[in-house]
Amino acid sequence: MIDAEALRAVCLEQNGAGEEFPFPRSPDLSVFKVGGKIFALTNLTATPLSVSLKCDPELAPQLRAAHPEIIPGYHLNKRHWNTVTLTGSLPDRLVREMIEDSYDLVVAGLPRAQRLRLDRAEPRRS
After folding, report:
1. Which InterPro entries match (predicted)?
2. What is the C-alpha to C-alpha distance for residues 11 and 122, in angstroms, rounded to an integer?
3. Burial of 79 (0-12, 13-18, 19+ CB in 10 A)
4. pLDDT at residue 124 in the model
5. Spatial CA neighbour of 14 closest among 116, 87, 94, 107
């Protein structure tokens, strides 16, 4: 099961990823970014643990239909974001893939120079 420590580790193992706490009204909200853009949001101290992730708009409804733990992004664009509750019922591999997909979608939208710098960075661990 992916717990808070594992969730943070998976997010931070993505090339160029960093963690910030930019919301003074929500000081426990971890925001994971690459190239200044958000790819994951979570409160690592919340119970149950959940994470909001960017998702391909074609895939998002399919994931929601297949897994009750995946719902439209909480306080986010529902077409592009899912919120995933990590209760242990989703396979860890699926959660990891959703995090990596979110990261990849954000990277794809970065300027070419930033993408090239990330490509030259040390590859992420799988």
Report:
1. YjbR, YjbR-like_sf, YjbR/MT2646/Rv2570-like
2. 15
3. exposed
4. 57
5. 107
pTM: predicted TM-score of the whole model, two decimal places: 0.92
**pLDDT averaged per 10 residues in sequence order, the chain, 126 residues:** 95 96 94 97 96 96 96 91 95 97 96 87 56
Question: CB–CB of 12/20 below 8 Å?
Answer: no
* Cβ 30 vs Cβ 23: under 8 Å: no
CATH value of 4-119 in 3.40.190.10, 3.40.50.300, 3.90.190.10, 3.90.1150.30: 3.90.1150.30
Distance separating alpha carbons of residues 24 and 9, to the nearest angstrom: 23
